[in-house]
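BUG-232 | component: ligand-complex export | severity: low

The export step for magnesium ion jobs runs without errors, but we want the raw record kept on the ticket for reference. Input record follows.
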Amino acid sequence: MIASNRQNGRHTMQVIALISQKGGVGKSTLAVHLATEACAQGQRVLLLDLDPQGSAMEWANRRGDRPPDVSGANPASVAKEIEQAKGDGFDLVVIDTAPHADHAALQAARAADLIAIPCRPSTFDIAAISATLDLCKLANKQAVVVLNAAPIRSRVTAEAVEAIVEKGGKVSPVVVYQRVAFQHCMIDGRTAAEFEPDGAAGHEITSLLADLQPGKQVSAKPGKPASRRKVA
Ligand SMILES: Nc1ncnc2c1ncn2[C@@H]1O[C@H](COP(=O)(O)OP(=O)(O)OP(=O)(O)O)[C@@H](O)[C@H]1O
Ligand SMILES: [Mg+2]
């Protein structure tokens, strides 16, 4: 559990950007979940929605006043927004980005400390991942692929890890599985953990946030489901 980010007595802020040139892979789903989980752990979190579709903003509107703070932003002003967040004492900024938007995604990548690339373990999604990996290289930022919406107990996950590593990607050992809790919760501005307390979906997000902490080494091996007690 991370209550606040302090190094040598100084406050540090982490910026995680969810980027994928492919649509529908789970950028917004993971962005709202990671941001809310970090809040639940005591961090001050700002979720920046850079996508004109405004999925995270819509979720925040349904959520009302409950944290995290969510703000729409123009990709051109993302660096300024992050400076301001630092000045305002935030511990973490999570950036949700649009698909098919090279320039905007590059601006988000440059502003981030770490890029998380959600990817479904499907042939089409894996085939499309090189474009996003190239973009992260161009920004010269550390990137980790997060397998999302993976079918439970299927070898496609292990096969996906192999294919992504072959393309030069690093894969998080934490796999987020296909769970209806991730879909149901969005309807009224909740998270999967709020929809189903102590459910597997919530545990996966806790593990993923821990894996995305600064300095944490990521391995190329897939993990097991965080919990099999409840399969939604
Ligand atoms: N782990 C999961 N389990 C079940 N459903 C999921 C999961 N992750 C995402 N989804 C569902 O997949 C759909 C796409 O997810 P999401 O909107 O987060 O993707 P996105 O990458 O932000 O899409 P876009 O590129 O359009 O912004 C949504 O209906 C969402 O509820
Ligand atoms: Mg989205």
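Assignee comment: Attached the raw record above. The chain is about 40% helix and 15% strand.
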